[in-house]
Amino acid sequence: VSLERASKAEVILATVKGIVRGVYVADEWLKSTRDNFPEMRQWDEDDEFEATQSSRFGFRGRAASPEITQLYLGKKIPD
Question: In which domain of life is the source organism classified (predicted)?
Answer without folding.
Answer: Bacteria
